[in-house]
Amino acid sequence: MPSTSCPPKQAFSKRTNPASHGMLLTFPPRSPDFPITSIIPPMDRLHTLHFLWLFSAAPVLAGYPIWWSLALGQQYSSFGSQPILCGSIPGLVPKQVRFCRNYLEIMPSVAEGVKLGIQECQHQFRGRRWNCTTIHDSLAIFGPVLDKATRESAFVHAIASAGVAFAVTRSCAEGSTTICGCDSHHKGSSGEGWKWGGCSEDADYGVVVSREFADARENRLDARSAMNRHNNEAGRATILDHMHLKCKCHGLSGSCEVKTCWWSQPDFRAIGDHLKDKYDSASEMSVEKHRESRGWVETLRAKYSLFKPPTERDLVYYETSPNFCEPNPETGSFGTQGRSCNVTSHGIDGCDLLCCGRGHNTRTEKRKEKCHCVFHWCCYVSCQECVRIYDVHTCK
């Protein structure tokens, strides 16, 4: 019988959020070239990921992370027997290629995390003018939309990085990989009347993997790299901030004679909801250029001094978004013509705003649905089929 009165995480955890206080996790010494080689043993080179083979003939493209196209591979999570061609995956920088070659067992989780992030993006923006549309016949899966340093780009970077951390953490806890597992720091009694049990998800580990892979290409000295690193970290910080205790009671008739608890990640929908709020309140920045010993460096500063400056957990951007009302191949806007709208809503999903003042069309649509369902003992349900008529409103 689950318990709903679990103590808050802050009462027991000594974790430090790397987004705000630096990386203070207790890992073995890091290699300067590849910081997590000491905590992830290399996998047999004969093993491979079949989804990577799909990209063996694809050219490498520039721009924002083309490697996000891994999320569209139909076989991204399966193992095969073909030689690995990590160097042929579009958009990987050398550090990511080394990661791929050395730690193949993690790569399905990386792809699953990006896919999870894209799906959540499409859910969160389903009623917006820009609805996180992906282009399946292009490796630049969002088209030119994310080439600019807009709010939309900030959100996608945050949700994709969070997705990678989330998927790696969950995969480790489920035992899907042999190179990681549960968080082993929590054992025995808590001193609060319950004891550690189950499998605590090691979100710190997932965050490290996400940082090493997703941030590997963001090492330039320009403002866009600074923005991407910040938003990537904000996404990962959301995972750590939303970790919570789950508890279970043990005893006769659910008497809770013994209660065990473990750390768990939230549903990814909670991460998406939180980052969507951060998108709506994202901070506009200005770009400053100054000279350092390593050359000219671009940094970001809050554009408006009267507003509260952004924290490590806020999203930042420095270029204005297009209005996405009309199709524009240069900005990647598909426009909103033909999009379904809510005629009763006064929000952005309503026909007035979503259709950008162009008006909307209304048509009737017949849909077959199950109805008049009856449960029969024992044990099946029988239903009739009804035809219902709905009004469908679409933008002109």
UniProtKB/TrEMBL annotation:
One of its GO terms (molecular function) is cytokine activity. Its main location: secreted. The chain crosses the membrane at residues 51-70. InterPro entries: Wnt, Wnt3, Wnt_C, Wnt_CS. Gene3D superfamilies: 3.30.2460.20. Keywords: Developmental protein, Disulfide bond, Extracellular matrix, Glycoprotein, Lipoprotein, Membrane, Secreted, Signal, Transmembrane, Transmembrane helix, Wnt signaling pathway. One of its GO terms (cellular component) is extracellular space. Residues 1-20 are annotated as: Disordered. One of its GO terms (biological process) is neuron differentiation. The keyword Lipoprotein applies. Residues 1-19 have a biased composition (Polar residues). It is found in: Secreted, Extracellular space, Extracellular matrix. PANTHER family: PROTO-ONCOGENE WNT-3, WNT RELATED. Belongs to the Wnt family. Ligand for members of the frizzled family of seven transmembrane receptors. This is Protein Wnt.
